[in-house]
């Protein structure tokens, strides 16, 4: 990545979001709500708050229900929609998840290597069996959300003797470099998640591959801790509104 000021970096972050939504960067600063149809989002709605503007993504049937609540010049929130849906007859019940988007300005990066009794190396497709074992040791929903795969662009793992106990991988997401991380439940709290994400950050920064983003749910304090420890800065908020199965 070329050297530049923090203002240059911020401008690149905003430009990538504008490019993704095919809008002018200035739209981020205008309070309001824009809508994008995502055919496969038939059971949830995503609200991406980029500065003053919110971009809503969902399937067409749900989109119409959300649009009915939008007002010109106001940024619609997932919490607001959920509250309004609960008052309908019959009500629409949904679960609200709140996530945060962090970005890594290169000069802020704080490397976090693993402790001396662990080893770290790049993983390859031949390590799929070890990765499968690591996934199996975690709750299925956590493994799915982490989405760490040996087939991704770059993958690293931390070992305790011959056991893979933490891993992280990166892939392109909306123009950014997005890491996923997973740690064996028996080895959490030892800084291993930070170590594998740190190794990915070093790879991305040294190779100039792009801007590192880190996405985390508010309730996942361990994940949030990784972002802060490595020097990521908080930028934006994402709300996900998931319809309850009965609806």
How would you describe this structure to a colleague?
- With 247 residues, the protein is an alpha+beta fold.
- The protein folds into 2 domains: 102 residues, no CATH class; 121 residues, Aminopeptidase (3-Layer(aba) Sandwich).
- It is built from 7 helices and 10 strands.
- Strands 1-3-2-10-4-9 form a 6-stranded mixed β-sheet, sandwiched between helices.
- A hairpin with a 2-residue loop joins strand 7 and strand 8.
- It is globular.
- The chain starts with 5 loop residues before the first helix and ends with a strand.
Q: How is the topology of this model organized?
A:
Blueprint lengths: L5 H16 L10 E6 L6 E7 L2 E6 L1 H8 L10 H9 L7 E10 L15 E4 L5 H10 L2 H7 L7 E7 L2 E11 L2 E8 L8 H16 L5 E5 L3 H10 L2 E11 L4
Parallel strand pairs: 1-3
Antiparallel strand pairs: 2-3, 2-10, 4-9, 4-10, 5-6, 6-7, 7-8
Summed up:
This protein is α+β, with helices and mostly antiparallel strands. The protein has seven helices and ten strands.
